[in-house]
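Following the same procedure, sequence and fold were stored together, as reproduced here:

>
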Amino acid sequence: MEIKDIFRQRKKRWNRIITVRRNINEEVECPKCHGLQNLGALKNNYYVCSSCGHYFPLKAHRRISMICDKGSFKELYGKLKAGNPLDFPDYEDKIEACCEKSGINEAVVTGTCKIEGKRTAIAVLDSSFLMGSMGTVVGEKIAKITEYAGKKKLPLIIFSASGGARMQEGLFSLMQMAKTSAAIEQFKSNGGLYISCMTHPTTGGVSASFASLGDIIIAEPGALLGFAGPRVIKQTIGEELPEGFQRSEFLLEHGMLDMIVERSNLRNMLSTLLTMNVGRK
């Protein structure tokens, strides 16, 4: 190796070290309390504000790294990518921009993993990709991972974070509600265990389909969950809504959820639930 190549490698290594240090020292503002959070400390706290408890949104692969055993996640159907069935203006450009920014091809990542040694199928919606909206590819990937879990006799865990159906795909998007619901129902009727984990926000067609069909339904604290948002409902019925309406705590109190689990405890809870349901028929 020539001397110039050695110096080039050392320079790259030094730049990586500087980047890591810069990221550790970087501060981000909490959108709820507006306090500054050290990025390194925020990461160690599962991206939960240490001042007010606000839950920062997680990208799909970041959540996967928190939940799955290290190195156990194997992606399936990652090459599927949205078309433009209605020739919606600039839709392809938006998809391409989201792909480049997020590093994923669609608003859901699907695959298999192990959680404390227990193998499971998993799907994670990413709200940074067109607000986690459900189009044809999202619906297809949810249906395919559900069918895969059924064939391989695996439990299924889906993390939801979505603004609902994707308007750029119109009726094709709405059809995914029936498609995913049918796949989940078939999976459950054959004895499969489905754990639905709702995160902020889970709304629209996603909340009205597969997200609400879990054998066990878990939510993160303070998450907004429901079909239409509270402002739309308030304007429609012309009445004041109860405090905390459509938040996790309100829904748990009214029997719509099985439990609320803090992000720091979610991996252990999922492991416990998978252990309890081994051999389920």
Notes: The first strand starts at residue 27 and ends at 29. The CA atoms of residues 164 and 204 lie 4 Å apart. Confidence is low (pLDDT under 50) at residues 17-22.
